[in-house]
């Protein structure tokens, strides 16, 4: 799967790169990709200066998120 840098940048910009909006950013990522791709989680962690395990903790804690691609 190709990560669309422009889309991810749009999401980060929309939420003002504020780490307190991480859940909302993950929702937008999942809406776009239909899951949370590992490379996107890594980029979010880097851009927001949060540990990668925090991003994965949130993505696995909430039932609405998935790390596996879903059908349309």
Secondary structure: helix percent: 55-70%
Largest sheet: none
Integer-rounded radius of gyration: 11 Å
Number of strands: 0
Short key terms for the protein model shown above:
mainly alpha, 60% helix
Describe the structure.
- There is one protein chain.
- It contains four helices and no strands.
- Helix 3 (38-48) packs across helix 4 (52-61).
- 60% of the residues lie in helices and 0% in strands.
- The chain has 72 residues and is mainly alpha-helical.
Short description:
This protein has helices at 5-14, 22-33, 38-48, 52-61. It is mostly helical.
Helices and strands in order:
Layout: H1 5-14, H2 22-33, H3 38-48, H4 52-61
């Amino acid at each position: 799967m190709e990560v669309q840098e422009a889309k991810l940048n749009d999401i980060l910009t929309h939420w003002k790169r504020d780490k307190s909006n991480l859940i909302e950013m993950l929702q937008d990522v999942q809406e776009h990709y239909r899951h949370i791709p590992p490379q996107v989680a890594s980029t979010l962690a880097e851009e927001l200066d949060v540990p990668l395990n925090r991003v994965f903790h949130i993505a696995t804690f909430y039932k609405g998120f998935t790390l596996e691609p879903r059908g349309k």
